[in-house]
Amino acid sequence: NAPELRRIAETVATSLLVAWISYKLAIYIRRTLFGHTLPSAGKAVLITGCDTGFGNLLARKLAAKGYHVYAGCLFSQGDGARELARCRGVQVIQMDVASDDDVHSAYEDVTKTLGQNVLWAVVLNAGTLNVGLVEWQSLESIRSAFNVNVLGAVRVSKKFMPLLRESRGRLVVMTSLLANFTLPGATVYSMCKHATSSLAEGLRRE
What we know:
Elements: H1 2-34, E1 43-47, H2 53-64, E2 68-73, H3 79-85, E3 90-94, H4 100-113, E4 118-124, H5 139-149, H6 151-167, E5 170-173, H7 187-205
Parallel strand pairs: 1-2, 1-4, 2-3, 4-5
């Protein structure tokens, strides 16, 4: 009936108004309290997994803000790496996080070219998506996923942590919502991301 419909409409309208006001208030508080940006002069950032996606975009964004960016790419001669190499402030380095030799070489490249800069942050972004039922996957496929997603994060963090301690910098670990729950077909990926989240939590406490 009409009164019931009016009551529902008023409830919906009130909810939308409250949501809109809350959204605007949140933006205002964020800009007022956290809107300042840290100075980028003299700071370098290492990002893994910059061939495509988030790592590639983050490298461009930070370089545009004045940071010197070391963009770790699995394929340093690939299309994504070549595009990044044309960006001012971006230095592409070969970096397969599943390879001890690559991570060591990347460390040497960074330390040799830092100059007056400090390594202010390392972003552990490299990862691989493993999809499929566990029963159907080979152990080699599962081992490879862990080598990149979990041990890759461990390799890079252990190698570069001394530089971060010197600069009092930060280690940024990219995980996933699937670290908190598991969907069929994404079991291995969730296992990896849960382990990576545990790594981040453990390093924070250590």
